[in-house]
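Tutorial handout. Part one gives the primary structure; part two gives the three-dimensional structure as tokens.
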Amino acid sequence: MPDGTESESRKLLGRLRDTMAEDAAGQARLDKITHLTADSMGTEVCSIYLFRDEETLELCATEGLKKEAVHQTRMRMGEGLVGRVARSGKVVNTADAPSAKGFRYMPETGEEIYSSFLGVPIQRLGETLGVLVVQTRAKREFTSDEVYALEVVAMVLAEMTELGAFVGDSAALSARHTQPTLLRGGTGQEGTAEGHVWLHEPRVMVTNFVADDPEREHERLSEAIERLRVSVDEMLAGAGHDAEQLEVLEAYRMFANSKGWRRRMEEDIQRGLSAEAAVEKEQSAARARMSQVADNYLRERLHDLDDLSNRLLRILTGQGSDTGASMPHDPILVARNIGPGELLEYGRQLRGIVLEEGSVGSHAAVVARALAIPLVINAPRITTEALNGDHIMVDGDQGLVHLRPDDTVVSAFRDKIAMQAEAQERYASIRQKPAISLCGKRISLYMNAGLLADVPSLETSGAEGVGLFRTELQFLVRNKMPNRTELAAVYKRVLDAADAAGNKPVVFRTLDIGSDKVLPYMKPTDEPNPALGWRAIRVGLDRPGVMRMQLQALLRAAEGRPLTLMFPFVAQWEEFSAAREEVYKAIALEKKLGHVVPDKISVGTMLETPSLAYASNKFFEDVEFLSIGGNDLKQFFFAADRENERVRRRYDTLNVSFLTFLEQIVQRCSATGTPLSFCGEDAGRPIEAVCLAAIGLHRLSMRPASIGPVKSLIMRTDLDALYDVICDARERGEQSVRDAVMEYMRWQG
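Part two.
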């Protein structure tokens, strides 16, 4: 770039900095910026449009258009050329605006006399805050240098908006991070919580944009990149044989050594930006690209670049992860995403969790469910909207997040929490009572668990035992494979705690990995549909070493006591037979080694695939017990991926087809005398639970907090009468029995 252009760019940045330093109101600053930008670029018009709400842009300042249009002219996202820039996040540069696609004439602005139009998004880290526009009477396209200059002004505007430099009376000039905000995400773990925000990774704020001494800024960038390279190399050296971690760190090293990445930042410095401003400009561009990339691999690489940029910014600004802020006494964790190990470090001190990304089957969701912490996933913009200490309310039942809620929302939300607390007090009074329906049917209620921290709930929840202990969590939260001794110690403590709670039974499910649960130290498989791929029992049978080690750990943990275990994701009888044979081999080996073995061992399987429901009678006679895995069975029955928000809520558990299918399983097990239970999210939902009980599923396993509500409704329900309601709805040809069941429940009171 010619020296003259570079000098003009630095001159414009210097004038912007001086304007920012002036003691002036927000509107006055905006007016000054539009004037100096138009003057520096030689254009008749410069206008700033900012969002007043999620869908509406407002003209907030202008040089050249009619002043009376300021704060009066508004447009929807996608409307006109300005709305087109806002929606796409891309530059619009045209010599003849009236003939451009999407042009909208706004007579109140007086812009009809201007032909050329250049609009750039005002963005910060991928979030669009508004649009910056310049216009001229003459028909001409703006040069790449002019586009760059306007983009730099837009970046400074974004940073200053974030820092509250343009606060005014208009809604579009309201202070950021002060207004009530409602974010809609997805349910990762049910429950409600109120508290204050604790950011897992506090944002880095850039306050110095202008390079007074470009050579010194080049040196600062070089020094920071070198420190970054050294830290990445150190992380690589300490990664050992962790294949997935090595892959990520190799990507880090590739970016840290990328000449193109460095060159773009050096060019930005040469044009007048400080080193940290150049890094953030590149990071914002990567974030913008990330939002438009569908390919998962490319998105992951852009995530890597984003994380690397954060590390570089922390080096340049000296702003580490530890900001000196104290965690509030009622923390709600806010993060883009988080690993299971990091989440376990926070533990039960968290009131709730809100993630900008994540899925219902992610490691974080598995741990949140194990800890019974309300979790909302896929909450858009939460990491850019929330500040440490912000008041926040999390509704995991509805997937809603109320950030800085107003008094009306606070009152309604607290009423909901109070009602739940009052209900829990009622449930405490029936904790030790059996779940017997009005028609005299006894329903056994068990709890799901996966961590040692869950086991105390055996006494406090009223559970009759652990119907499902997920053993994969001990594998997921480590950076290397746990050994036999470590696993045996964990399983022993679980059995000891169950004995102390009144000799309550525990059903251990063997390792269920693959699909959405990939071990950190296991090489990920490239599968087009992991949920239907190499997972669970398929991995165990193909790589029997881990299965044998886990079985030995379980046998040793029992110390002669009865042991109950089941295998996940069995699709045919042969898989169960092969897995059970591994149990017999492990018992024989333990006896040979002189170790005591359980005095009684029961081996069953999960029924999660429709194929197993149609196995021969011999299988049902052969297996010692079955547990319906409702979550997986439902997604396969309806061909609706439970990781896909578009379809996972589309199909009702109380759909006639699904209930009929479940009832057929009940009838087959009844005919062969095979013990049967139901395990899954639906077992913990009172209406679904009583319907499952009505069709003959008399053993249900759920999260501990659900046992009280489910037991309460069972004790107030005539299951025989409810079954008649279900049959009547089925005979009438209704798609779901839900409406009929709800009407019956209301009539019953």
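Part three, for discussion. Confidence is low (pLDDT under 50) at residues 1-5. Residues 214-237 form the longest helix (24 residues).
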